[in-house]
Amino acid sequence: MRILHTSDWHLGRSLHRVSMLTAQSVFLDHLVTTVREREVDAVLVAGDVYDRAVPPLAAVELFDRALHRLAAEGVPTVMISGNHDSARRLGVGAGLIERAGIHLRTDPARCHVPVVLADGHGDVAFYGLPYLEPALVKDEFRTERVRHEAVIGAAMDRVRADLASRATATRSVVLAHAFVAGGEPSDSERDITVGGVAAVPSGIFHGVDYVALGHLHGCQTITERIRYSGSPLAYSFSEAAHRKTMWLIDLGPGGEVAAERVGVPVPRPLARLRGSLEELLGDPSLDRHEGSFVEAALTDPVRPAEPMARLAERFPHVLSLLFEPERTDGDDAPVSYAQRLAGRSEQQIAEDFVAHVRGGGPDGRERAVLRDAFDEVRVEDAVHEGAGRHG
C-alpha cells in the first residue's frame, strides 16, 4: 500500500505578518497532484491542520477545498488533530465526512478504533492518536502520572490490544502528534513541555509497522519505521535550511517499509544573512537572496541609520532585522534579551528570574511549584481553546 505522509499544514499562519495562504494553496495543489501522479492509496495528515483553534475564514475555505479535491480523487485520507487545532471543531461532522473517505480522528477515547483499508495483500489498520494533553486525558486513560509518556503509552496499549484481536496478517499504521526523543525541534513549534518533560521515547510505539508523526517541523527519521514529515512550508527563520518534503511510504505485504522523500514547492525561500550593513548591501554573492524572505543580523559596532529601509532596496522581502554587533578584543558586546532567552523553556526563564532577584536559584520544592503553575496555565489554555477562544 502506498501512503503519503504529511503534517503541520498550519493553515492560516503568517510569517512575520506576511500571510502564507497563497503558498499553502500552492502546496495543497501539489499534494493533490502527487496523489494522482504517484498513485497514492492513502493520505495521512498527522496534526496541526490549522494554526490556531479558531482559524480565519480563508483558512477554513482552503481546508474545505482540499477535502473536496481529495474526496474527488477517491483516495482515503486520515487526519488527526494537533496541539494547535481545536479537536472538537476539527471533528465536527466527522461521521458524515467519513462517507466521502475523509477520516477525522480527534477523539482520544476512540484512538483504538482504526480506519481499515485493504490492498491486494490484506488489511491495513490506521490508528489516529490526536494530540493528547496529559492533564485533559489522564482520566480517560487512567494514568497516575500527568506526563506525555504515560498517556501516549496508555493509548498505544489500547492500539496494540485492538491489533491483537485482528487477523495475524493485518498491517498497522499509527498517526501521532508528539515530541519523540531524538527529534530536532525548531523555533516555530509551540512548547508542549509538561512537568519539565516534552519528549517521549520512540520505543513507546513498538508493535506497529509505521508511525506517521507530526509536531516537529523538520522532516526527519527517528527510526526506519518512525518518521516526521515536517511542515510543508517554513514557518520561522530557524527552518531556513530545511528541505521541505512529504514521505511517500510503500508498505509491503509483510509490513516492510520503503520510504521516499517527495519535495514540495518553495514559493519563496528563506535566507539568514549576517554582516555589516555595507557588506550586505554590496556583496555580489548575496544576489541569489534578493528574491528571498530575509532575516538580517547586522554586526556594525554602531546601529546604522534606517537599516531596514536601506536593506529593503536590495532585499524587498526582508522581514526581520537583528542588531548583533561583533565582539572585539577586550570588549564585552551586549547580549540582547531575545538572545538570552533563545532555546530556554518557560521554566528555565522563571528560575533564572528568581535567581536574579534574590541572589540564589529556587530549591526543589520551589521548582516543583513553578512547574505545576506552568502546567496549569497550559491546561487552562487548552480548555479555553476547545471552548472557542483564540489560541
Task: Describe what is shown at a glance.
InterPro entries: Calcineurin-like_PHP (IPR004843), DNA_Repair-Maintenance_Comp (IPR050535), Metallo-depent_PP-like (IPR029052), Mre11_N (IPR041796), SbcD (IPR004593), SbcD_C (IPR026843). Residues 1-218 form the Calcineurin-like phosphoesterase domain. The chain is α/β, with parallel strands linked by helices and 391 residues long.
Secondary structure topology:
Blueprint lengths: L1 E5 L7 E2 L2 E2 L1 H17 L4 E5 L10 H17 L3 E4 L6 H4 L3 H5 L3 E4 L9 E5 L2 E8 L4 H8 L6 H17 L6 E7 L1 E2 L18 E2 L9 E5 L5 E4 L2 E3 L16 E7 L5 E7 L6 E6 L1 H6 L10 E6 L8 H8 L3 E6 L13 H5 L4 H13 L5 H24 L4
Parallel strand pairs: 1-4, 4-5, 5-6, 8-9, 9-12, 10-11, 12-14, 17-18, 18-19
Antiparallel strand pairs: 1-15, 2-3, 7-8, 13-14, 15-16
The helicity comes to: 25-40%
Low-confidence stretches: 387-391
Shape: globular
| CATH class call of the largest domain | Alpha Beta
CATH superfamily of the largest domain: Metallo-dependent phosphatases
Structural class: alpha/beta
| Number of helices, counting only DSSP H or I runs of 4 residues or more | 11
Number of domains: 3
What do we call the CATH topology of the largest domain? Purple Acid Phosphatase, chain A, domain 2
Distance between the termini: 37 Å
Main sheet strand line-up: 6-5-4-1-15-16
The run of helices and strands is: EEEHEHEHHEEEHHEEEEEEEEEHEHEHHH
Average pLDDT over all residues: 90
Bin the strand percentage. 15-25%
Described by strand count, sense and barrel closure, the largest sheet is: 6 strands, mixed
CATH hierarchy: architecture of the largest domain: 4-Layer Sandwich
Based on DSSP secondary structure assignment, what is the total number of beta strands? 19
Family: Belongs to the SbcD family.
Domain Calcineurin-like phosphoesterase: 1-218
Pfam families: Metallophos, SbcD_C
Domain Nuclease SbcCD subunit D C-terminal: 267-356
